[in-house]
Amino acid sequence: MTKILKIYKYPFCTIFLLLQTLLLLIIIQLCVRVFSLQSLIKLFSLQRNPPASKQELPVAAKAHLNKIEWAIVTVRREFPFMHLTRCLAQALTARLLLKKRGIKTVLFIGATMRDRKKLEAHAWLSCGTTLMNFGAGNQEYTELIKFY
Predict the structure, then answer these.
(1) Angstrom distances, CA of residue 2 to CA of 10, 72, 78, 79, 90
(2) Which of the chain's termini has less CB crowding within 10 Å, N or C?
(3) pTM recorded for the entire structure
(4) SS3 at position 66
């Protein structure tokens, strides 16, 4: 209960971002668990072909990236049921929130072998040269596909 009360210390725009993030993570996590990757590609209008021209990041883009990454990590940490969200749901949530602010991203999906027995996948975002991993690393994953 004390964690929920701490939210009132933030400005309204930060509270609104946290609530947006929470609702989007819940909805997108359900989609990730229910739909196949092919269905998610159609649902979120992901394109495999790069855009015709690369757009420069707006000046405030870095601040938006940091704020949205902070919001996702905070929601996962503060709400007990949200720590189980998958990286794909986090990446898609960040992608939607950044797209709403006019910031283009690239969604990467990669994989690695764990102990020569288990194939493990991971998703992360890139915006210019900045990577968004939401607290996880992507160095050990081999990039399989990217969406624009």
Answers:
(1) 14, 20, 11, 12, 25
(2) N
(3) 0.85
(4) helix
